[in-house]
Every structure is written in structure tokens, then in C-alpha cells.
């Protein structure tokens, strides 16, 4: 099965679908520095986080008191779906969201709004995002998907991009040879068993769960070739917020960087924090495959998303992500 972890009532396309779970964790550890001493423009910030492994760093930072030590009073609100994220950010009820790079670049290029990435959250690794079929399916390889229906979290999403990338390696065309069916991750297994979909693009924890419980077959890992080690999501604010609160953003970045370093180097930290804000069963937590938790914010890395979106026709012209990044402060 798998040896490592993105538990997803899932993240996948900020105009996508996920689901459920609780949020938790309390600040412990370092004593808070008075906000006045740090000159923070805003001390209370609300974070919208999907209850998935991608969000581990933010919960570690709160639980260990890293935000508190920077003078920040952080409230983490669980989002029911990624479709709720951008409206919450634009409406002002939320200051920071877990933003899927594909979706945020898509809306930025369309000039729907101006956004800034302030920290990287999650990056793909082998076997974290796979195409699967039921164990009794006659489909035995990806070429067998020609003329079939594939469940993805949303149309024009990273799920569609990744599936299309895998299909192309098999000589298939995502627009001509398959039909993508928008389906929430928790509903994908049901969609396959009822005939609404023939295959599904799944990530953790659903990926491990359908294999353990139902014997689902993996057709292929979609994060290979052009999408190997692909950037998935980062912490996002509006340009207006970033411009008005530079010291607050820097404080967030410093606190988060400490937590992300733990997530990147110690799996046990992730396994310990996941039960506090997700409903992933303990037996699954210990076996799911984890992606990477980047500790830097790299324009070169995130540019890969925009460039591949252009190559596949999701963007009409080249889009430079550099202006969207707020450089991380020196620790």
C-alpha cells in the first residue's frame, strides 16, 4: 500500500470541492510578544483552511504557539469546500486562505481579483494523486480510459490538468477521448460503483481508504513527467491585505516557516496534528502517502503551474506569477 501522506475532503482547485472535518489546536509554548512592540498592523487574523494534510503546517504553528510568539491571535476556520475559500477572502470574513495554485492563477489571469501568495503549503510526490478504478473494472491501464468518464473535483481544475497530463503520456486527448465528471472527493467511490464515472482522480486519504476497504486498482500516478513534484497550494491573501499589513504578513510567515520546517522533516508531527482538525481514521493516517511541505516560497517553482496551464490551454497567454509572491522574511 503506501508508506507516507493530503487527506482530502480535499483540496484541488480553488473552485473545486472538498469536505468536512473539524478544526482545532490551541496555542501553547512560547509566550506572546506584545503586538505593540512588533508594530503589527493587525493582530487578530482569521485563516480559512481545508481539513486536509496540506493544512498541517498552519495547525502545527497554532498548536505550538508560534503565532502567539509573533503577537498574532489566530483563528482557524475549517472550510467545507475550496469553493468557499475565495468568497470568504473577497468578502472580508477571512484574511488568509489555503489557495490552490491552479485556481488562484486562473482567477488572477482572468482579472477576477488580485491575490498574493505568502507561504507555500504543499507539493506533490509520487502516488499522492492517482487515477483509480474499482477492483472488478475491466479497465486495466490508462489506455483503457478512452471513451470513459473520469471523476474529478471540478471542471477546469488541477484534477483535470493532472489527469490530462497522464492521458497524454498514453496517447489520449483529454478533450476528445474522455469526459470529466465534477464530483466531490467523498462521493467519487459511489460515482464509480453506480456507473456515473468509470475512474476517479483521487488523493489522500481517500486514495488509501478505497484501496484498503474496497480493493480499488491504481491505473497510474498522475504526478509524473511534467507534473513531477508539482506545486499544489499555498497560503493566500488579497493584494489589498498584503499592502495594508506588511508586518502582520511577515509575522505570519515567520511563525509558519517554523511549523512548516517541522512538517517537512518529521512525519510524526503531521500524524500527531491531523486528528485535531480532520476525521481521517488513525489507521489511515499511519499509512497514507504524504507529499512535500516546502519551506521556501519560490516563484520559479510556482511558475511551473502557470506554464503548464498555458501549454494545456487553460490560460490564453503567458502569466508571470512573480508579482503574486510576497517574499519570506529572514528568520
Automatic annotation (TrEMBL):
Keywords: Signal
Protein name: Sulfonate ABC transporter substrate-binding protein
Family: Belongs to the bacterial solute-binding protein SsuA/TauA family.
Keyword Signal: yes
GO annotation, cellular component aspect: periplasmic space
Domain Solute-binding protein family 3/N-terminal, residue spans: 44-273
Signal peptide, first to last residue: 1-22
Compartmental location: Periplasm
